[in-house]
Structure formats: structure tokens, C-alpha cells
Amino acid sequence: MLKFVKSLATAALLSVVTLSGANAAGASVDLKSVDWQHTGLFGTYDRAAAQRGLQVYREVCAGCHGLNLVAFRTLTDLGFTEDEVKALSAEYTFVDGPNDDGDMYERPGKPFDKFPDPFPNEKAARASNGGAYPPDLSLIVKARPGFENYLYSLMVGYVDPPANFELNPGMNYNAYFAGHQIAMPAPLSEDAVEYADGTPATVDQMAKDLTVFLAWAAEPKLEDRKHMGLRVILFLLIMTGIFFAAKRKIWADVH
Ligand code: HEC
Question: For the chain, what are the domain ranges?
């Protein structure tokens, strides 16, 4: 028993140490901080921003990064109609099969398909990117310390390197990437997309929109989770009241 308690305590201590270590690594540079609409207690995703972010992903990032946990049909969560989702998925081509003759064939995408990977495999991805691997972006917002603020900072963090900084060939300076040398060239530039809703496509705007979209991709059920949390707390409050009243009644005659 004692041994068990001891190992439990060690595990707890270790996790505290590693957690604070991870934070320390992430906090070595102060990230730019944005007041995201969806991060508060009652927060919901800014649908218009997320729709614009999808446009940026499709037109700028999808050439190198997959989003292979996100099915087209889930885009209705962001306010797209089923017809819009059908049309959007049909713009992609998927290899399916084998058919009755044993051949693979190509077909247009369907709402149940997921965003396809831009490269056939990791080696092909690395070969096209100077040896570096562009990670799938489905969970990227959750996968780095700093979350939304990290992604946003990374997108706007391409600045001139300090005078004494030695940049390796083929690398780019980014103020927020660990070690400051990143193989990804600055993906966003002024007016890289022309927004369907007429919003001016500044780098800052695109970085914010993209972050909202990828935050949604990483946690599409965030709003349900928050609502459920509130209902549970309300339930517990009411039950506390009822039990308190019951306790007073039961013990009323005991002096
Ligand atoms: C030309 C290809 C290319 C394009 C376009 C591109 N990326 Fe990348 N991206 C890469 C490569 C390569 C890496 C790996 C960089 C490294 O490890 O040094 C990367 C890494 C990343 C990372 C991970 C950084 C980290 O902390 O590890 C994120 C996030 C990212 N890209 C987001 C985006 C977004 C968002 C877009 C669109 C606005 C985009 N990328 C467009 C090639 C690309």
C-alpha cells in the first residue's frame, strides 16, 4: 500500500515537473495574445471568421498541409448549407475502389470524405519541403503550448532576423518558432486570398481567421462541452439546495 502511495506521489510530482517544463519551453518567448471569442466561459466560435479561415486553409495551406481528421460534412457546424458542403467536397478527387474489375478509380469527393493529404506519403512531403515535414493541421492548435495564440503568433512572426543571427540555408526566421529557424516559408502575404465576404485580407486578419478555423477543427464540440458543463454545475447547485433543505428538516428535532 505504502509503495503504491509512494509511486502515485512520484507520478504526480513528475507530471507537475514535466507540465511546468513544457510551459517554460513554450513561454520562452512571449506569444502575441488575442482575445478569442470562443475561449471564454460562454464562448462560441466566430462563424464568419471560421468560414474565412477555411478559405485561407484551402487556398494557402492545403498545398502542403493535410486536415485529415476533418470531414467535409462537419462544415455545416460553421454555417455552410448541405448543398454548399456537397459542392465543396465535389471539388476534390478521391481514389476509391477496387471496383468489380479489381481496378481503382477516381471519383469526386462526398460530404463523408475528409480533407485529403496533399502528398501521397511522408517521404514525398519531406522531399518537396527540403527534408522538413509539414504536419497535419487537424489538431495543431491543441498540439502546441500556447494553443491559438501560438498559431496566430507563428503566422505573423516572420520578421527580419537579428543582425548576429545565423540562418541555415533554406530556413526562414520566425520570432515564435522554437529555435527561430523554420523550414516553412512565410505562408501569408497581404491579399493572399480575396475574401468572399469582402473583408480586407491583411496578414493579421488571415492569421486570426485561420486560427479560429483550426481551433474549431481541433475541438468542434467545444460549445457542447461548455453548455454541458454549465448544466452540470446548475444541477449540482440545485441538488445542493435540496439536500441542504432536507438535512435541515431531518435534523430539526434533534437538539
Ligand atoms: C510550401 C509548403 C507550406 C505551406 C504553403 C504552408 N506550410 Fe506550414 N509547414 C511547412 C513545413 C515544411 C513545415 C515544417 C517546418 C519545420 O519543421 O521547420 C510547416 C510547419 C507548420 C506548422 C508547425 C509549426 C510547429 O510549431 O511545429 C504549422 C502550425 C503550420 N505549418 C501552419 C501552416 C498554415 C496555417 C499554413 C497556411 C496559412 C501553412 N502552414 C502553409 C510547409 C508549408
Answer: 30-70+114-159+168-247, 80-112
